[in-house]
């Protein structure tokens, strides 16, 4: 039974988000309590207005109906678990409001010891606390979550609650917002429309002196022409806007490994050479051309083999680029999500396997691998990042670590890119001096076959599913920015402040 469970779990893991599934399971309890026989009176709302409740940091249980109060109690518990996880995660190297508490905690910097880690072992990092109760009241007003008796809280209900909680939490400190391109700012493969409501919303962010960057997997080299074509509607909005040059200069495009900045004098994107911002650790692997070629060779050969085994060869084209290899459909053809996921997941596994074997050999050659591991007598340390870092850190000469890559389902195609969005967002953070709690990434691909998920290790994230949802999120965010006090000099100002 256990092996069957394990197989089922792994077969479905790429379609699930473990934290959302965890919250979903907890919210089934209030749903069942609210639907028990005789619960009719629980749905009557008390006199308190939804607006006044939402403005409160922690809505009082007595101010809402019993049906809502049950959900709030569970969400309050999750807020506490997140806060505890933050305290366990932080190593105290940054000055935060929790520094005093952390100094007193011997387990700071060990997130594995948090209560949330024991409940959701794959849980990642949180850069801010999340006001889930306030976000629930907001979403409940729009989605009737507590008032439903036949349909329990869904994946999408919880995704929206998390998104709006994150927006509320980050608004006071936001300095950098990064966006995925396809399905986040425009439809898959489409251009940024001139009449898109997102043009004005992005201008509002720039007006508040927030750095805005589009971080997209679409790589067209160092020539900005193709990006300018795809972003023509947005760039036209910039050109006719009344925004000052300093604000407009805070717009960037990072396409693949190529960074561009908007020049308000010429109204064009200007390429920024990577030598000017690339860190030493990134340069070390990004210039290793023979290793990169080997990864792409393996990816191309694996994709060709899997396509043949799935009888897809006549329906697809495989395209090799400098730092990527992709599979896309021939005209008139379309692959199912399952076919695309299969190509992406199996290629991920193939490259991970190859790189881990290489690392194992390197460590053995350097004499850094403990005998029992090198002989296969115990579980290999490969794949356990901390152990590898600790071992390689002791080496006299640098040991070649695996090269970051991303094999993902792009919605209608599959790509294997060298580097990933974690590297891209991290590089922008480094260049612009923005910490994780000051950075928000907005994207649509947060499952394990997606290319936005890697950013969760660097910053706060918001998981949307369409440009319309991006607009909803930004409308709320710009409202909150309007209320942000004018602090920190010229780099931050509330919306509506003069030039
Ligand atoms: Mg996308």
From TrEMBL:
The Gene Ontology terms for molecular function here are: hydrolase activity
Q: Tell me where the transmembrane regions lie.
A: none
List cofactor names only.
Mg(2+)
**Reactions the enzyme catalyzes:** IMP + H2O = inosine + phosphate
Q: Answer whether the UniProt record assigns the keyword Metal-binding to this protein.
A: yes
Q: What class of enzyme is it?
A: hydrolase
Q: Which UniProt keywords apply?
A: ATP-binding, Hydrolase, Magnesium, Metal-binding, Nucleotide metabolism, Nucleotide-binding
**Which SUPFAM superfamilies does this chain map to?**
HAD-like
Self-association and partners: Homotetramer.
Q: What is this protein called?
A: IMP-specific 5'-nucleotidase 1
Organism lineage reads as: Eukaryota, Fungi, Fungi incertae sedis, Chytridiomycota, Chytridiomycota incertae sedis
Which gene name does the record give? Answer: ISN1
